[in-house]
Amino acid sequence: MPRVFSGIQPTGAPHIGNYFGAMQNYVTLGEQFGKNSLYCVVDLHAITNPAASDPRELAGRTFDMAVANFAAGLDPAKVVFFAQSHVPEHQELSWVFTCLTPVGELERMTQYKDKAAQYESVPSGLLMYPVLMAADILLYKADTVPVGDDQTQHIELTREIARKFNHHYGETFPEPKAVYNQGAVRVPGVDGHGKMSKSKGEASTIGILEPLDSIWQKLRAAPTDPQRVRRTDPGNPEVCLIFDYHKLFSDLDTIQLVDVGCRTAGIGCVDCKKKLMEGVTAHLEPLQERAEGLRADPDYVRDALRQGAQEARAIAAPIMDEVRHKVGFLKL
């Protein structure tokens, strides 16, 4: 049976991009592969971003990411769900891989170049980010990695690192393949500027645990088709992010209604947004109620993370022992 691994960063509140792009896929794969599905809140990766690694907030965000995944339907009794920092083998394997990976390979990573341009002094952790990601995956000999298409280059590097280790030290790791959630839409930011991302701040995101009143305020102010200057102007829903959100939250009848209504000026943008909010409420309100129940029982969440870390280490420890032996470290 395939072994699935994926990680999600706790660098901000979980949003609908995370939900439709990753978390729903986690649930589906978890039902299919059970304990061969490993999901990790990658808090070690989070601290590569100085703007998102406030030590006063990191633990709470890690906890909230677990709550959000459980509320979205992921059952920690059926999968292995844990926090990255609770399994120290991640760092150890990352160092071994660091010693195999040329700097030039890391400097050509598109995400590194994009993020490094934001800094006057680039943190070295940002450069090493994909090496740690490779360790996350290969530590469990995972062969199936559900990711967004923006991670394709990192998966290619992971495969290269696996090949390089196998060449130097003997056949050890599989070459994992990326699995994309074909049903997922690339969710735009609510400000209309590119993909929804936690790194852009809360003004760009719709949090799945965000109060519904707050979500409505964001939707009400969200941009629509710029050609619809007046209520009587026909529009093009295909260039409107509100229509993109309808595809996520609304039923087929509503989608068809707003599609035709926009093109014929039969519905105004405010009414279109109100219909969207009905779908958002129907979708997120039950999830938020489950999240409140989980927050009211923090011991359950912490126990689930503790159990997940134990299960993860039970898989990781013998693989790390194999690596130590093949690399030639002294065994006492």
The gross shape turns out to be globular
Distance between the termini: 34 Å
Instruction: Please give the largest β-sheet.
Output: 3 strands, parallel
CATH evolutionary superfamily of the largest domain: HUPs
Strand order of the largest sheet: 1-2-3
Q: CATH topology of the largest domain, anyone?
A: Rossmann fold
Mean pLDDT across residues: 92
Q: Name the poorly predicted regions.
A: none
Q: What is the share of helical residues?
A: 40-55%
SSE series: EHEHHEHHHHEHEHHHHH
Name the structural class: mainly alpha
Fraction of residues in β-strands: 5-15%
- From the alpha carbons, calculate the radius of gyration and give it in angstroms: 22 Å
Q: In DSSP terms, counting alpha (H) and pi (I) runs of 4 or more, how many helices?
A: 13
Number of domains: 2
By DSSP, the count of extended strands is 5
Written description of the protein model:
The chain is mainly alpha-helical and 332 residues long. It folds into two domains: 213 residues, 3-Layer(aba) Sandwich (Rossmann fold), CATH 3.40.50; 81 residues, Orthogonal Bundle (Tyrosyl-Transfer RNA Synthetase), CATH 1.10.240.10. Helices cover 54% and strands 6% of the residues. It is built from 13 helices and five strands. Strands 1-2-3 form a three-stranded parallel beta sheet. The chain has a two-stranded parallel ribbon with strand order 4-5. Helix 4 crosses helix 7.
Topology:
Layout: E1 4-8, H1 16-33, E2 37-41, H2 43-46, H3 58-71, E3 80-83, H4 89-98, H5 103-107, H6 110-116, H7 124-138, E4 144-146, H8 152-169, E5 177-179, H9 212-221, H10 241-249, H11 252-263, H12 269-295, H13 298-327
Parallel strand pairs: 1-2, 2-3, 4-5
Helix pairs in contact: 3-12, 4-7, 7-8, 9-12, 10-12
